[in-house]
Amino acid sequence: MVLLAAAVMTKNGRAIISRQFVEMTRSRIEGLLAAFPKLMNTGKQHTFVETESVRYVYQPLEKMYMLLITTKNSNILEDLETLRLFSRLIPEYCKVLDENDVQEHAFELIFAFDEVVALGYRESVNLAQIRTFTEMDSHEEKVFKAVRKTQEDEARAAMKRKAKELTQQRRDQTRSRGYGSSAGSYSSSKMDMGSTTIIAPEPTKPKTAPTRSTGRAMKLGGKSKDTDSFVDKLRSEGEIVTSGAKKKSAEAAKTSVPAALKESVHVSVEERLSVTADRDGGLEQMQLQGRCNVHVSDEKFSSIVVVLQKDEENGCQIQTNPSVDKKAFMDKGVLGFKNAKPIPTKQDVGLLRWRLQTTDEALMPLSINCWPNENGAGSCDVNIEYELQVDGLELADVRVSIPLPSGVGAPNVAEAAGEYKHDSRKNILEWILPVIDDSSKTGAMEFSIQGCSDDFFPINVSFHSTKTIYTDMKVTGVDRVEGGQVKYSMESTLLVDKYEII
Fold it and tell me: What residues make up the domain containing 419?
């Protein structure tokens, strides 16, 4: 199915919120929404109505309608299933099904809609997954916040102790000055009693011995006994706890690549991969979404075009930014705004995006083959191997997470390429491979543990790369609109959203 838009409307036909999933003008979507009430037949009950170009699929929600606008060639059964999921989202975020409550939770609903549909196509998600994705609840984040709060409380207590010490020190200095002044007045009066007036020298202020602090100096971010005991307790439960800076750097290493040196014109190409494969080697679904962005930091380089070398044979669905001159892109392979309009500066501007969906397992960048063999004694021997299937590709920080049966202890690893780590709290054996490239195309790990074949699935894989693999666009240069080349920097990234063997 191709879903054009989703909207929540009142019974009299006014749109409360609307979300478009494909490129269309504002007048176009407003016209489609305005036409819906006129097509409604109040005498009969239906779930959809069609025009010459689109199909309206709707469901009443008390005083409102949940409305989907799709193409006419979409599958009506899939449309109705998607409509039911959208209809369940409204009461999930709105306690009262009325116009005011929907408006108050408009942004949450739009974020939830985006989790259901991407580029017009339904994602394989359920209501619980959508709630998790939108809330982004993270146990590691809770641990980090708890540690940081403990450190902040420690810093406040240290500040109060230091303030008391400074106040006491000022009081001691004030008392010392007052005693010296009274002693000087007494000496002057005694000297004036003789015939000769002798002016007594001004008394020297006694040096006040520095007050030694009995408390510790203020130490922002320092660890306390409470922090240490809290962290030790977490570690005893099997949780891996790191400091804030280390945690952030570790997370960044898993999900991104090092930032490239940027010129005044910086072109970035990013692809995000989602793969679901079965344990027998077949590919159930692979979806790739890519973007080409340009960032101009200097206004004198805003009138430019990005030159591409295209290969039309890979089957990607391509969409250009509505502001891009599509004819110039199709004819010459250049990305630039219509009528030589300058590109906005100091922001990432999307010029092109593409999408690939396939079930051809030969297109998977990395195949994972897991063979559990039950030996008849309640134990299982597991052989797992990987194979890099794309020549010239380099995958970094590859992590293969294999679930293990609970309550049977650590696995006995006979051999393993790279490294491995057993997480007893999460019951996971993590196979860690820093780099997979042409020099290490294959590798294997073998271990044994109590359990059966189904205990070791689903297997999850994560990695990143500085090379994109499926886009048919290669950036060959950046030119000024009026002629002449421009120095630019280039960054390519391949990231994994989901890579699962079930």
Answer: 366-465
